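Extended Data, panel c. Modelled sequence:
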Amino acid sequence: MGTTELQSQDFDIEVNLNGKPTTLQVKVEETTDGVAYYECIHSGKSLTQIRKEEDGSWEQIWGDLDQPTVNLIGSAISNK
């Protein structure tokens, strides 16, 4: 997929972080080998980068969120 195609896939998700409803901007990015990952941005700052594994689980590739939060964000992305 080209960069322009990926940028057109950017979207917002609503998640409950630390007990607060939070809107995250999600930018769809791609690794050099063509695997999609998602950069999640809050208040203009990158919060995490996650990707969906072949087994359906979500893995954080950058950031310091706990696994339940990564799963919550991943679920919101899947439901978009």
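The chain has a mean pLDDT of 91. This feature is highlighted in the accompanying rendering.
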